[in-house]
Amino acid sequence: MHKLIERFAGYLPLDFRVLYRQFLLRVIDLEALSIQADVTRFLGQFAGVLIMISLISAIHAFVSTIAPPTTVAGWLNLEWGTEQSAIATMMLVIGLLTVISWDSTFPDRKDVMVLSPLPVAPHTILFAKVSASGALVGLAILALNFASGSAWSLILGSRRGALGFLQFCAAWWLTMIAASAFLYCSVLAVQGFTALLFPRRVFLRLSAVLQLAAFGLFLGVYFVQPSFTSPADLAARENQWILASSPSYWYFALFNQLNGSLPSQFRWLAARAWIGLLLAVFGAVSSLLLCYLHTMKKTVEAPDLVPGAGGFHWTPSFGNSLQTAIALFSIRSLTRSRQHRVAFAFYLAFIFAIALSLLRIDLTASPPHPVTLEIILPTFSMMFFAVGGLRNVFSLPISLTANWVLRATQLRPTEEYVAATRRSLLLLAAAPVWLLSFALSFRFGPVLHVAVHLAVLALLGWILVELCLIGFYKVPFTCSYLPGKANIQLQFWGLLIALIAFVVPCAEIEQSALNESMKTAFMLTFLFATSCALFFFNRYRARSAVIYYEELPDEVITTLGLSA
Q1: Residue among 360, 383, 364 at smallest CA distance from 454
Q2: Are residues 377 and 456 in the same domain?
Q3: Is the N end or the C end of the chain the one with fewer CB atoms within 10 Å?
């Protein structure tokens, strides 16, 4: 197989092959990486996370055969629920991947300045970028469905014999490819026509809003959208607007059309899937051609950084001069840098989805709502994602070539820089989540329980901030990033395990302590003592620490083993 791929690649033009390799490795901004960064290893680890999700789905498929449904309606619920969940997850992954690589398909200022003097045609650059982006999307489709698609085809399709297995498997892969192509091309069409309709300066500002809106839309729909697993639910009149406006249900109908199991009254949904796919592909191709043929050279005239707005400017104070400077530097890095804004928006979208679920509970039940695990767990999870997400984004540099300014002006001890970073985490992550939880808690009661929960949430945010500061001896957004150094598969699953192992017991302890004053006092005292202990521990360690700006791999000394 490898030899066939190399033989096929040999027929492609050399300039296309070179550009394809470069664009494929530019998923992450190269200027933000360490000198010894391993991008290919990083991409492999990302694919490993999707493969693990596919394996978990396959295990679930085989576990479902232990106690299989005994009725036709039961098998239909299992089949339709599996199909809807798989399509929604596939569209979520492709949507997030497309938004994260928002600027990777269209030409930027660097591409024009570097490639314009060379004898490279614009259509070669276009094909190379589209091929690189398509390869990432194809990798995600393959990694997320290689095990789950085969397992569910074997469990659900084999009920109709060998031909049923083949038809179910073909319908699975064709639907996943069509749904991914629809979402990928839709995002490209929206971005391309926005770049064509507006000037470059306006587009850069509007692009940030579109990225954040897309993140919130994809995750909000994934977590809020209901699942209909019976013909009665699909045929209900009150559910028709959801079916008509949700692309995941369009491709659910397309799946069953290809599988030969679609009821005749839902053919209009499959027709919407085909029409949507054709319009999305046509829009993406049109916008790409127009951008590369007509507006490619105009990107040189405008800078990539969004210029500051004119008018009156007021600078708030966040403490002393160093704390204010680092806090403002963090705020402006998040608001003006597309890379950091998108990275932090990933965590904000999770917080947004959890807040929507809380709001739905708040609006559907009659007040006052008791403070239960349904309220405690979401607020704890929001704090966990906010603090941990901002700590991860702090590790991505804004401009390594400008770090000499920070190094030359480092006139204060490391302890004060750590204190400034602590204040930035508290102001930008912990405080907004606490205020959001406070705004959502007006309809809960009794008031004493709500006050205790908000106090516990504040102390939990402080503890998470102190845990994130352990070993973080660098200014936010200034140290080079070394992808591949840490195994993101272990980090991803470790984060989920830590979330379950840390947040769930804390929520259960708080719920059991709310009705007893002695337990409540002991819980608050313990959390406050833990916060103070971590605070003084970080302060003590920071006195002897040195701020660093370059992430380097660990040195490994290899011996020949010749000694006795």
Answers
A1: 383
A2: yes
A3: C
